[in-house]
Amino acid sequence: MSQFAHIGVLGAGAWGSALANLAARAGRRVTLYARDPRVAEKIAQNRESPKLPGVALEKPVTVTGRLEVSDADALLIAVPAQAMRSVASMLAPALRDGTPVIACAKGIERRTGRFMTEVIAECVQQARPAILSGPSFAADVARGLPTAVTLAAADEALASALAHALGSPTFRPYHSTDVRGVEIGGAAKNVLAIAAGIVEGRRLGPSAAAALVTRGFAELVRFGRAFGARPETLTGLSGLGDLILTCSSRQSRNFSVGIALGEGRSLEDAQRGRMVEGVFTASVLVEMAGARKVEMPIAAAVAAVLDGRLAIDTAIESLLTRPYRAET
After folding, report:
1. Whole-angstrom Cα distance, residue 321 to residue 179?
2. Interatomic CA distance for residues 160 and 168, integer angstroms
3. Which residues of 56-90 are buried (b: 16+ CB within 10 A; e: fewer)?
4. Can you tell me the distance from the alpha carbon of 122 to that of 278, in angstroms, rounded to the nearest whole number?
């Protein structure tokens, strides 16, 4: 574990601050990098992120606005999925060969259809990409509430070592080599959570909510199989576990946006200036599914609603009037 004595966290928002705290509790020396030097200075003075008010940073966390990562033993990138490429590209000139770079975003790059570890591999060829995902809210992790996630890397020894380096009595990472399965669970569940929120916002009842989550999970599994994901990953923390959390709590931005849409508010009003990963992932998820002939009617309905091609009531009707079939 001593090989990961110094952990760098890129992105000083709510999730980045939470990750910095968990790494510090695991006994690591931590550097939290804010992209805006003014924000870094403010966080350093106040010892808390403006995105996570009321939660103090642990003492071992140093905050900086300078991207000096050459002495970091591993890096966690906690920026939105659509910003991953620009941030990863900045690392390339400074990163040591073989440094693990762990993506902590749950999404698919909209323009290219690339998963987060693919983006890292393209932009930082000397890095060892990994992915951290699972049922976790930043506020819970930052405060040290019990949480379990999945950490995946292509090399099992690396995945295990990283899990041990970040683990603590209140944060339990299970390690895996199914990188793609972990990424798919995190990306797809955000889109399905918007659908679950719409059901809540339309007050269609708990029976409809249960049906939506169950059939949505079937879509996630079909998509995962098409990309070689393992069944145990899809039914594990980063698949089913994260889906259950995200589809049931208003702490989820995706679920909350769905509720607002279901109540009749516009997408712009529903987002309220927040970054909502499922909004950006929906269309590319459906495109990728179509290319592999994977049927995802719920995700397709969400994408159509977000793109303004389908009214919510029409989308609901289209799902309710689908032909009867065997459950698969």
Report:
1. 36
2. 14
3. ebbebbbbbbebebeebbbbbbbbbbbbbbebbeb
4. 23
Q: Which helix (H) or strand (E) holds 241?
A: none
**CB-based contact 73:6 (threshold 8 Å):** yes
Q: Which amino acid is at 153?
A: A
Q: Measuring CA to CA, which residue among 76, 83, 64 is closest to residue 20?
A: 76
Residue 189 is a catalytic residue: yes
Walk along the chain (328 residues) in steps of 10 and give the mean pLDDT of each run.
85 95 95 92 93 92 91 96 95 92 97 97 96 96 95 97 96 97 98 96 95 96 98 97 96 96 94 92 98 97 95 89 75
Q: Rounded distance, CA 6 to CA 4, Å?
A: 5
The H-assigned helical ranges of 101-252 are 116-123, 138-143, 156-166, 179-201, 206-226, 231-234, 242-246
> Residue for token digits 């690396």?
158
pLDDT at position 80: 96
The pLDDT of residue 181: 98
> Catalytic residue among 42, 51, 106, 189, which?
189
For residues 262 and 197, is the Cβ–Cβ distance under 8 A? yes
